[in-house]
Amino acid sequence: WKRLAYHIEHHAETKQKLGWVREMYGWSIGAALQGVKFNLELPPRQKLIVQPPADREIGAAAMFHYTWGTVIKDKATDRKLWEFDKRTYTDAKLPLQVPLIPSPPKFRPGLVMQDGQPVDQKLLDVLNAMIDQMNSVIPALPRLKAVN
């Protein structure tokens, strides 16, 4: 893995094509070359993570992987009703205390995601569980210090 990660990092074309996930590819390729076998169950049997909005059931997963941004829109008007994207919370203009994350809207027919896929109650349940979990610990986060 270390050798592969180094090669990827120092090979401009590979680095550019693999982008920010290049180290993950290095690890995966290294594991495969060493014959490491993984038991890769799909949700809801996956015991490690679920990735909303791709996964619509928590099942046996122990964690949420929230790399995907989720936008919920009204299909009829194309109006954005709710959004969660972790990148929103990395802007230096944010307050020094992390704000609570708004909950997704209640289910109603006609809700879709940014890619046009319908939003159902199962997806909203997963999103609410993830947001509730994050909101349960946000008040305990230390206040950040301003950097001048």
TrEMBL record:
Q: Please indicate which superkingdom the organism of origin belongs to.
A: Eukaryota
Alphabetic keyword roster: Glycosyltransferase, Membrane, Transferase, Transmembrane, Transmembrane helix
Bilayer topology annotation: Single-pass membrane protein
Read off the InterPro entries from this record: HPAT-like, HPAT/SRGT1-like
Q: Which GO terms describe its molecular function?
A: glycosyltransferase activity
Gene Ontology cellular-component terms listed: membrane
Using the record's annotation, list all stretches that form the Hydroxyproline O-arabinosyltransferase-like domain. 1-103
Keyword Transferase applies: yes
**Short name of one Pfam family for this protein?**
HPAT
Location within or outside the cell: Membrane
Q: Entry's PANTHER family?
A: PEPTIDYL SERINE ALPHA-GALACTOSYLTRANSFERASE, PTHR31485:SF17
- Its recorded name reads Hydroxyproline O-arabinosyltransferase-like domain-containing protein
The root-end lineage is: Eukaryota, Viridiplantae, Chlorophyta, core chlorophytes, Chlorodendrophyceae
